[in-house]
Amino acid sequence: MKTNDIVKYMTEEFVRYIDTPKAERKKKGPREQWSSRYFGMIPMALRLSIANKRAKKKRV
Predict the structure, then answer these.
(1) From CA 59, how far away is CA 53, in angstroms rounded?
(2) Which InterPro entries does this chain map to (predicted)?
(3) How far apart are CA 26 and CA 18, in angstroms?
(4) What's this model's pTM, rounded to 2 decimal places?
(5) Separation of CA 1 from chain center
(6) Less packed terminus of the chain by CB within 10 Å, N or C?
(7) Which residues contact 44 (CB under 8 A, 6 or more apart)?
(8) pLDDT score for 18
């Protein structure tokens, strides 16, 4: 990228940021659990596996 492209991009982003209302900028969505944020689907897979084993054990 050329320097002019970078300056143009930064200016557009700054203007877009300024144009959005302050309340909308501060709005945050729900946060992911720390375990899935750092480890992805592995914790959920482990929980499902353990629950499945416990359910099978209770049936017997």
Answers:
(1) 10
(2) YqzE
(3) 13
(4) 0.42
(5) 29
(6) C
(7) 36
(8) 92
Length of the chain: 60
Which residues, other chains included, contact 43 with Cβ-Cβ below 8 Å and sequence gap of 6+? 35, 36
Residue type, 57: K
- Residue 46 is predicted with a pLDDT of 92
Rounded-to-integer distance, Cα 53 and Cα 57, Å: 6
| pLDDT number for residue 1 | 62
Per domain, the residue ranges of the chain are 3-59
The string of DSSP letters for 5-58 reads: HHHHHHHHHHHHHHHS-HHHHH---PPPPHHHHHHTTHHHHHHHHHHHHHHHHH
